[in-house]
Amino acid sequence: MTTTDLFTWGVGLLLGLMTLLFIFRIVLTWYPQVDLTKLPIALVVWPTEPLLVPVRKVVPPIGGVDIAPVIWVGIVTLLREILVGQQGLLRMLG
Questions:
Q1: Which residue of 16, 49, 65, 85 has the lowest C-beta tally within 10 Å?
Q2: Are 52 and 25 in contact (CB under 8 A)?
Q3: In angstroms, rounded to a whole number, what is the distance separating the alpha carbons of residues 55 and 71?
Q4: Model pTM?
Q5: Which of 47, 5, 57, 8 is nearest to 25 (CA)?
Q6: 24, 71 in Cβ contact below 8 A?
Q7: Cβ atoms of 23 and 30 closer than 8 Å
Q8: Helix (H) or strand (E) run with residue 4 in it
Q9: Distances in Å between the alpha carbon of 82 and those of 6, 9, 28, 70, 75?
Q10: pLDDT tier, 19 (very low <50, low <70, confident <90, very high otherwise)
Q11: Across-strand partners of 65?
Q12: pLDDT tens digits for 23-54?
């Protein structure tokens, strides 16, 4: 396995993990009574909240529904496809 392949695999794994975390955040919006500071929920909140805050400033909750995680799922999925998809930029380098 070359360094480029290892890097591509790592980027794909990281972006896949971020997609999963944002999907968990979408599910957490259905349960507003959940304490986001307690483990294991905090393990989902800590890496995602810094990315969600600026999006919430631009796109506030609509009808009480926080759509910021949905926007990030779209962004991360698009990035993953562009970088490590079948015709991704990182795959073309390797």
A1: 65
A2: yes
A3: 8
A4: 0.88
A5: 47
A6: no
A7: no
A8: helix 3-28
A9: 17, 14, 28, 18, 11
A10: very high
A11: 62
A12: 999 999 888 899 999 999 999 999 999 999 99
The secondary structure of 12-31 as a DSSP string is HHHHHHHHHHHHHHHHHTT-
Quote the tokens at residue 19: 């997609």
Q: What is the pLDDT of residue 54?
A: 96
21 contacts 71 by C-beta, under 8 angstroms:
no
Distances (CA, A) of 75 to 15, 37, 43, 49, 52: 10, 26, 21, 15, 12
The set of long-range contacts for 76-80, using a CB threshold of 8 Å and a minimum separation of 24, is 76/15, 76/18, 76/19, 76/22, 77/19, 79/15, 80/12, 80/15, 80/16, 80/19
Alpha-carbon gap, residue 65 to 73, rounded angstroms: 16
Residue 58, SS3 per DSSP: helix
